[in-house]
């Protein structure tokens, strides 16, 4: 079965999945680098490539391509929660906490290796970084489909704009 068909079959009947259900569904896909690579999008207006592989009101499945040396904006996922699976490469996930006046402070980071999962609980503010020398490709499943996501800045980033 083709990848997109397998993904649709795994996610289309979900009604109110937990992040753990999403993880199970991703795990059952038994994703391989070769199989996923034809869907990898090159970055255009964002620092990373993004391709939606499945979307319903309940679930959104996205393939992210973070080239070596790149990082995402610091962001949340609105009211959605989900999980991600690293298909290729090694991801550094930085977690932030919302502080005074809407700025965020880094509160921790973890490395997510190829074949490992990353949970994104509701309200999590994070940034994904690729500090390695090869690309990172990861598959993300969120429920419900994302809306009202926000981007955040650290105080140091804001200082960069002000002279
Ligand atoms: Fe995210």
UniProtKB/TrEMBL annotation:
Its EC number is 1.13.11.20. Keywords: Dioxygenase, Iron, Metal-binding, Oxidoreductase. The keyword Iron applies. The keyword Iron applies. Transmembrane segments: none annotated. Pfam families: CDO_I. Belongs to the cysteine dioxygenase family. The gene is cdoA. One of its GO terms (molecular function) is cysteine dioxygenase activity. This is Cysteine dioxygenase.
């Amino acid at each position: 079965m083709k990848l997109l068909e397998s993904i649709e079959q795994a996610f289309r009947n979900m009604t109110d999945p937990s992040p753990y259900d999403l993880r199970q569904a991703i795990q059952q896909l038994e994703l391989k680098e070769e199989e996923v690579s034809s869907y990898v999008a090159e970055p255009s207006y964002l620092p990373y490539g993004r391709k939606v592989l499945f979307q319903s009101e309940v679930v959104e499945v996205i393939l992210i391509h973070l080239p070596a040396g790149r990082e995402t904006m610091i962001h949340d996922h609105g009211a959605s929660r989900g999980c991600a699976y690293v298909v290729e490469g090694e991801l550094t996930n930085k977690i932030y906490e919302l502080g005074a006046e809407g700025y965020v402070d880094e509160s921790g980071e973890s490395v997510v290796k190829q074949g490992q999962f990353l949970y994104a609980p509701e309200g999590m503010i994070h940034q994904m970084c690729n500090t390695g020398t090869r690309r990172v490709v990861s598959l993300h499943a969120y429920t419900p489909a994302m809306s009202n996501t926000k981007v955040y800045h650290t105080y140091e980033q804001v200082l960069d704009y002000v002279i």
